[in-house]
Structures are given as structure tokens and as C-alpha cells.
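Thought: the user wants the 3D structure for the chain below. I'll pass the sequence to the structure tool as-is, report back what it returns, then summarize two notable features.
Action: structure_tool
Action Input:
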Amino acid sequence: MTFDQAGQPDLSVVIPVYNGERILAATMARLSGYLTSGNSEIIIVENGSSDNTLQVAREHAVDTPNVTFHVLQSEKGMGNAYRKGIEASSGRRVLLTADDLPFGTDDLDEDAKLTPKPHVVIGSKAHKNSNIQRSPLRGLTTFGFKTLRQVILGSKVGDSQGTLIVDGGWLRSMVHRFDDPGFLFSTQVVYAAEKQGFDIVEVPVTLAPDDEPGETTIRTADVVKMFKGLVAMRRRKNELAAAPSAGTHAS
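Observation:
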């Protein structure tokens, strides 16, 4: 199922940014330098920052012949920012990524090799050819979340927390159903695509090393929140599995 419309940008890149003034300008420059053909838009969504993120975004949102920038604001939370950016997007396909480009442009490079285009492409840390170097504790967290998804949701996807490149029309038609304000937003997208029977392809990526690695702590409250969020998602299985209804925004 596709929702293409003549005159659309080829790609919309949605980037949530929270207190990202230090890295945002470089990210914007790298993406606009990469997207030198076709027609793309980059949508920056500042969400509750206490630094100069919004000012940096506006100062560096300089359009090029191939890229148009949009700077928006949303309530705090990655999911809230993604939702705002998706609603404002118009691309045939939409890339959901992060302000530090954790995989560089590996996800876009791998996506370019795929013909025909899958409904969902995941820059996947779980791919056997991915180069991921993380602390044992972070690796344990990732494994634990994957196990919970498999048990609670029956998900077959290796990594629902990677970057996503998704059919834009479908994503905009479904965005009102993706209500998580935080990190489970992308899992809702992937779960809905699975339940609707779409093709999902995970591609290999290399995870950029942290500039300032720190000790990761896992609180019991975080695990409980994760568990409750996945259970709530399972209860909405039929809603997420239903195809977008006629009349919803699918441009």
C-alpha cells in the first residue's frame, strides 16, 4: 500500500531535539550536505529545551536547492516531537532519526540500495552486520527490551528503537493512533506495521561512539514503565492492526 502524490518531497527527515545546542548545527549541515539530489525537507522539532536549541535551529535552517528546513516546537518528549513533525511532513517517505545522527547516514545509504522500497526500513542495531559498541549494561537493557517486546507483543522485529524510514502517507494517516509521548513511539509505529502485514526490512548500521560516555543507570521505575507501556500497546492491538480509514490525512 502506498499513498504517493505528485509534487511531494521525496523525503521528510524528522529530528526531535532536546537540549541539543552543542550538536544540532553539525547535524543540520551534515544532512543538507548529504541530500544533494531530489527534493527533501528537514523538520527540526524542539521539545522543552532549557538551552539555546531553538535559536541554533532557527539560525542554521538555511534552505538549499534540494532541502527545505522547518523549525517547530512541541511539548517535551520524543514521541510528542515525532508526532508534531510527522503531522507537518509531506514527503513520500519519512525518516525518524535523532539529533546526533547515531548511525550517520548509514540508514539512508542502505535504504538507497533497496528496490522496491519496503514499507518500513529500520536502521537496526540488531542486524547481524551492524557494528555496535556499547557498555555491557546498555547491551543488557537493549536485550531486555527486545525480550519484553517478543513476549508481550509477539514482535518479530529485532530492533524497534533504531531509526525508521517509513511510507509517508501511511505514517501521516496513522499518526493520531501513535500516542506515546516518549521513547515507545517508534515501537508503536513498528508494531502497527507488523500487525497490518507490511514488509519491514532491518538494515545494518554502525553506531557512532558517544562523545561523552557516562554511566548508565536503570531504575526499577523505568522497567515498570516500559512493561506497562508494552502491555497497553498489546491491549490496543486491534486498533493498531486496522488499516487507516478513508478520509484520514494520507498525502
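Final Answer: Structure generated. Strands lie at 11-17, 40-46, 67-73, 93-96, 120-124, 163-167, 200-204. The first strand starts at residue 11 and ends at 17.
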